Amino acid sequence: MQIQLDRVTTGRLEENLGGKPGYLKLFYDTEDCGCNGVLVIQIVDRPNDTDIVIQNEPFVFVCDRQQESLFDSTMTLQAEENYPSYKLTSPSGLFSSNLRVKDLR
């Protein structure tokens, strides 16, 4: 799996990390949402035993191996210029246009 990032997105993710170590986890959060899940980027101290590394540079991205099939092999993560969210797309479609970061460290 590959996640393409532009300069603005890289800078925003660095801001989200705040100079501290952390893994960026793509995760469908189903807690208290009353739906099939809301895609979020979780910042975690370390991956869970069931997480797999999907990309190492410029950030380490992980996802749960049970959720890996929900994503495409090539995706683009793009920060919204004037809003604290991201858009995740792939050649086959849109995953989320309002993707938020949740710091769980």
From TrEMBL:
InterPro entries annotated for this entry?
ATAP_core_dom, HesB-like_dom_sf
Q: Which residues form the Core domain?
A: 1-103
State the SUPFAM superfamilies in the record.
HesB-like domain
* The protein's name in its UniProt record: Core domain-containing protein
Lineage in the entry? Bacteria, Bacillati, Bacillota, Bacilli, Bacillales
